[in-house]
Design brief:
Number of helices: 9
Largest sheet: none
Shape: rod-shaped
Order of helices and strands: HHHHHHHHH
Number of strands: 0
Strand content: under 5%
Structural class: mainly alpha
Distance between the termini: 84 Å
Mean pLDDT: 81
Length: 204
């Protein structure tokens, strides 16, 4: 095997230890150093520095993509203003009154119980929201849902828009966990901006 000379500077004490280990192993100094380098190279972990850097780059890309998704969701679901919350409340009341007549329930109590089954299934829903919806639907000139009440539902694990999904499921007699991809029903932004003006829409 062809050899190439390698000149290196080494600590004198370390050199003495290497020579001592070479003698104990019964090898010459050159053989001992050559074998030591080969053992180190051949047994070096396969995940070297370059691979580790590649892994870090992939992880960073995933983090950036996740951050981008969160930003996209936040941009899509902007917090409601008081005016939009009032419009949304009036829209819910109008939808309930229309569907109550359309579905021909025996009583408003039956309609209410069926209506609420499509909202209480969401993890962020609570008794206060149930009472607030009941006030809005059955009491004239009741206080609208507040911005905080509507915005708090955005943290739902199943759906970031449970009010809209609940309405869609009730109208269609469905049980989907999330209807955010439903492009036929008005978006929350549109509901907040237009309120009951949307009720005349033939698609609804």
């Amino acid at each position: 095997m062809k050899r190439t000379q390698l000149n290196i500077n080494i600590d004198p004490d370390l050199l003495q230890k290497i020579k001592s280990s070479a003698r104990k192993s019964g090898k010459s100094l050159v053989e001992y150093i050559t074998d030591s380098f080969q053992d180190h190279l051949y047994n070096f972990p396969s995940e070297d520095l370059e691979m580790k850097l590649n892994n870090f780059e992939q992880r960073l890309r995933l983090i950036e993509e996740n951050i981008g998704s969160v930003k996209k969701i936040n941009k899509q679901f902007v917090d409601f203003t008081p005016h939009e919350a009032a419009n949304y409340s009036r829209f819910i009341k109008a939808i309930f009154e229309r569907e109550f007549k359309s579905k021909k329930y025996n009583s408003s109590k039956d309609a209410w119980q069926d209506f609420m089954t499509h909202f209480t299934r969401f993890d962020e829903w609570n008794e206060i929201l149930t009472l607030r919806l009941k006030e809005i639907i059955f009491i004239d000139h009741a206080d609208s849902l507040t911005c905080n009440e509507i915005n708090s539902l955005r943290n739902s694990k199943k759906c970031p828009s449970p009010l809209r999904t609940g309405l869609i499921n009730w109208i269609n007699n469905s049980e989907k966990e999330c209807c955010c991809n439903n492009n036929y029903f008005p978006s929350e932004k549109s509901i907040g901006e237009n309120g009951t003006d949307l009720i005349s829409n033939p698609i609804l």
